[in-house]
Amino acid sequence: MIFSHLVLATVAAAGVVHVPLTGRALDDVPEVRDYLSKRAFPDGVVHADQIMGQVFYETYLQIGTPAQNLSFSFDTGSGNLWSPGKNSTSCEAGQCREDTMFDISASETWKFKRTGRWWGGNGIFGSETVRYAGQTLKNFEYWVSTDQMNNNFGIFGQSAFKDPSVSFVQGLAHAGKISRAVYSLNSEASITRWNLDAPKSEWRRTVNNVYYGGYDQAKYQGPLTAIDVDHYGGYKMPMSGFTVDGEFVDDGKNYTVVLDTGGLTLQVPNKTVGILAKKHGGEWSLKHDRWTIDCDAKPVLTYGFGYTQIDVEFDQFIKKAVGGPECLIQRMTFASDDQTQLLTGPPVISNALVIFDNDRNQILVAKAKYTDESNVVEITGDIPGAVQYKDFLAGKPLPGDKSAVASTLEVKATNV
User: Fold this and answer.
1) Beta carbons of 271 and 288 less than 8 angstroms apart
2) Which of 149, 209, 252, 336 suits 176 as a labelling partner, its CA being 20 to 30 A distant?
3) Which of the residues 75, 216, 228, 357 is marked catalytic?
């Protein structure tokens, strides 16, 4: 969803903060587009929301003293805080947006740590005062470029480290602002590729919510499956396979996915895309180097996470070929058949409720429920009602469902 309107928000209740964030039009930030081919709340829950642009979730942080209000990509596919420096080579050459550049010399609280290369460029590691969602963390690690960054745009990484000076969620937990290092994401609607073809007056605007220390119980349906990752803050997780229009794709592969809010597209195995295309009258086109498909097809690709199934409406990737009557599957990436690690962007994430439970080395996934109802709860211990992916792999039926089919997949954790 592409747009550039300021979203106004208010403090909903004592102990809960709902901050104003923006979504940025794609045309405003072509450098990001080119690079990223990728209510009342209880105490103890920190809340913010992001508006989904075509490319990324954008949010604002206040950094330094006096505070500089800077724009960042809210990124679950990385784990650090980075931004371009105002005096960097790229920014002095006019390649940075004004609200992305940090001026080290203007902050009284900046502390130099070391120099180092990161995010495609050279820069300075320091510590700073960081404010987000109404919360303040001091001496937080922050990398500022001196020459360039891959996209010359700030990155607010969410993948956790145990160091509270590096991970925002860990910093909140360490400071006692939330009970555990856990946060959740839920979208208020499914995010599709609609805006690529729609006039700006018809662009769809979708809000994504992040809750540090809690989740909204009203925003999911069906099983909430807990999937183990093999280290603290891991964000790559196994999946149990794909289905196309309800038919399981049995290719003998064990896939892992990275849930990346900074991602531009989906990576789907070429064989799976081919099965989907052929089910709807398509074939491989040597002329276009893509799969053709019936222009009126409405296929559904389902991501399996054990007991949880996440559907993606695939007609959003169907578009007529330039200069020809046939339709092609476009705007997503055909992964080679030997590639087993796949990136997934907002078209998948927005169809799920996702909880990143860093303390338990787990990611929990459920099918999204889009409703005006809300029931945000703090997470202090076990997450009520969660079922275990390892039980699915062991062939155990879903509690209360004697018709569940046993799995033959091998139990494996992941390492990213």
Assistant:
1) no
2) 209
3) 75
260 is catalytic: yes
Give the contacts of 283 (CB within 8 A, at least 6 positions apart): 277, 291, 292
Q: pLDDT, tens digit, for every residue of 358-410?
A: 888 899 999 999 999 999 989 989 998 999 999 999 999 998 775 544 444 44
pTM of the model: 0.85
- Matching residue, tokens 């992305």: 100
Alpha helices in 63-167 (DSSP H): 89-92
Query: Phi and psi at residue 29, in whole multiples of 5°?
Result: -135, 65
| H-type alpha helices, 253-358 | 270-279, 346-349
Region of 133 (left: φ > 0; alpha: ψ -120 to 50; beta: rest) is left
- 3-class SS of residue 188: coil
Contact 50, 113 (CB under 8 A): no
Options 49, 260, 357, 391, the catalytic residue: 260
Name the DSSP class of 16: B
Strand partners, 55: none
245 is catalytic: no
Distance from CA of residue 50 to its chain's centroid? Answer: 11
Instruction: Identify the architecture of domain 218-393 in CATH.
Output: Beta Barrel (2.40)
Task: Return the SS3 of 98.
Answer: helix
